[in-house]
Amino acid sequence: VVVANFTDTDLVTPASDLVASINWGDGTTTTGTVSGSNGSFAVSGSHTYALPGTDTITTTLSDRSPGTATATATGSATVGILLGDGNGDGVQDNGETTLSVPWAAAQQLLNASDANPDVRISMMKQALKAQLNIDAGKADPGLFPGQPAGHDLITEAVDWLRGLAPFTYSPTSANVDINHDGILETAATSLGNDYNTATQAFTTPPQKATMNAWLQYVDTIHSPPQSGDLLINGQDLRNALAAFNANQLVTLMAGTQVGWNNGSVTTDIQSNTANTFWNVLADNHVIAAPHV
């Protein structure tokens, strides 16, 4: 894969006169392959990461000895799916709460049944679908262009999956990230991991549809809740993700508006500000939406 492109004012230097090194950001450096001509060069390489996350790739292009000229380019690589990446740029930006999910686990969860008794499976499935839609260019409801994340749909899904405020419940929350490092540790064993790829299950006790993490209402805007605020629960959040993935909850006008697509026309169009999408879902009877 091409990891960096370079230009040179010297249009006669051949690619064979250049050498490249690639620092993959996880402690590994390899030699890159240089191609191109006429002052335009590409550096390619391949690498397998051991852990999910976002790593900075630093590519250095140099003249072969005795030449001394060098140039450096940086980029990033996201391994797996970065849940909570509200703007879909592949990195954790300020204000984003994320959870890195390795490809193997993500593929299992995307294919999982919504009828799984552990409601976290269904939530993760819909959250992964939503993140893939966002990565493909679909605007995240609640994330107004140019504004930081915080009260957008995918961020609130990650907050629920990590057991973060306001989605903290007694006696247990839905947290799938045991050590709170923002990475879903996975392997074919439960020991020391968050998700077991052999059993296709989270390693902590399942959260059932009868438990507080699914049924108890919380205020996603204010703590403590303020009069007039709309309340949601885990089931509402899963249903919101499903509506977004089904192209019912839609964003319009380059992400500045949010509305409801009934299959033939978009109605209930509102400004796409923090948590406005919950009002759209309530108006269209997707969620119960009690108020404080």
* Average pLDDT over all residues: 93
Please give the alpha-carbon distance between the first and last residues: 53 Å
- The arrangement of helices and strands along the chain is EEEEEEEEHHHEEEHEEHEEEH
Question: What spatial form do the alpha-carbon principal axes imply?
Answer: globular
Strand-residue proportion: 25-35%
Cα radius of gyration in angstroms? 23 Å
Number of strands: 16
- How many structural domains does the protein architecture include? 2
Described by strand count, sense and barrel closure, the largest sheet is:
6 strands, antiparallel
In terms of per-residue confidence, which ranges show pLDDT below 50 for 5 or more consecutive residues?
none
* Alpha-beta content class: alpha+beta
The spatial strand order of the largest sheet comes to 1-4-3-2-5-6
The helix count comes to 6
| Estimated helix fraction | 10-25%
Protein name: PKD domain-containing protein
InterPro entries: PKD_dom
Organism: Bradyrhizobium zhengyangense
Domain PKD: 1-74
Care to describe what's here?
The structure is a single chain. Helices cover 20% and strands 27% of the residues. It is of the alpha+beta class. It folds into two domains: 78 residues, Sandwich (Immunoglobulin-like), CATH 2.60.40; 203 residues, no CATH class. A six-stranded antiparallel beta sheet has the order 1-4-3-2-5-6, with no helix packed on it. The protein has a three-stranded mixed beta sheet with strand order 9-10-11, with no helix packed on it. A hairpin with a 2-residue loop joins strand 3 and strand 4. It starts with a strand and ends in a 9-residue tail after the last helix. The model has no long low-confidence stretch (mean pLDDT 93).
